[in-house]
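User: C-alpha cells for this complex, please. No commentary.
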Amino acid sequence: EIVLTQSPGTLSLSPGERATLSCRASQSVSSSYLAWYQQKPGQAPRLLMYAASSRATGIPDRFSGSGSGTDFTLTISRLEPEDFAVYYCQHYGSSQYTFGQGTKLEIK
Amino acid sequence: EVQLVQSGAEVKKPGESLKISCKGSGYSFTSYWIGWVRQMPGKGLEWMGIIYPGDSDTRYSPSFQGQVTISADKSISTAYLQWSSLKASDTAMYYCARLTGSDFDYWGQGTLVTVSS
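Assistant:
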C-alpha cells in the first residue's frame, strides 16, 4: 500500500509570496496518477492538478505541479487571498485511491 | 453543466441504518465511475470505494470493505452509500465524486452524517 506524506503540515505565508507544497510517496509512482486538490472551509474539495502537472479546467496558471518517482510538488507562484486553504495530493494505483494527510496554507 | 447533488444531512442513533444518495446530471452517468470519500471532523480525506453505474461493478477500500455498501440506480442517475448499523465513529462528512480514471474531477456538496445517542 502506497502512503503519501505531505509537508509541511502547515505553511504560513503572505499574499504575493510563493508557496511550495510537497507530497512524497512511500514508493515510486507514476506521475500520470498523481493529483492535487484544494479544499476551503465548508466546501467540497476541488481538483487542481492531474497527471502531476496538468491544470484542471478553470485553474489559474499561478498553480503548477511537478515531480516524478516519489517526490511531487505543487507550487503557487504568487499567493492570492483565495488560495489560503488545505491542499491534498492523491494517487491511484492497483485499483486503490490514496490521499495525503493535507497541508494547510494559512495567512501569515 | 456536470453536477453531483447529494442528499441532506442526517442525524441517527447508533445501530440504525442509513442510505445517502448522490444524483448526477449534465453528463452520461453510466459512463463514469463514482467514488465516495469520507472526511471525519477536522481530518483529511479517505477514499471509501467506487462504483461504475453502467454495470454496478464496485470496488472498496480495504478499510471500508464490509463496513458500508455502495450501489447505484442508473435509471435515475443516482449512487448510494449505505450502512446497516451505524456507529458513533461513522460521524463524518461524506462526499461523492466523479472519477476520470485516476482522479476525481467533480464533487458533490457533501452529506453530513451525525451518529449520536
